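call fold(seq) -> tokens
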Amino acid sequence: MSDSTQIRFTENDWDILRSIFKDNDNILKLLRKIFYHQDFNEEELKLLKLNFNGRKESLPLLRKLFQPEITTDEPIGNAGSRWIDKKFADYLANEMKPVILGRQDSIRWMEKGLNRIEDLIDGGDGKSAISPLDINLTEDYSSLKSEEIKRKVVSIQEHTTQTENTLNILKVMCNLKKETEKEQIARIKKDSVK
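ret:
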């Protein structure tokens, strides 16, 4: 396959992810718990281990989904990162620091979640780095400076948005009906007649 026709995720990549997440809302919800740095009970841990233990091939794919990075070898039109979608030029200069630091916090939290998944894949309990995030902003922030509050709000907003959007993509893509070659040819032929 030439560079011009490459895609970010191959059908084999999606097959790997489908083997874990297809019709499996429970594991998707547990993934949410992992990324929000929440603990899980023994039954949930058993389910996570059943789905992730030894599945090393899933980690780079989850990393590509949840923590995308721009690289020069990505196919054209498929590069993405946690920074590419924001127009930072629209912020005032005095707003930039808490916005950038909040976004960096979110990226670090995502990385810690991915490290928890890696621990599960390696046979661990996935409980490293648990420090639940204040995802509903219920803590008392009255003693913080405005810049610190903005940083916290940005980090929570960025992290929950990235997590929920990616979980939704994962659910939709893993539950798509897989076409046979014959069905694909018929669909293409039908679409080309229009």
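The chain has one domain: 7-193.
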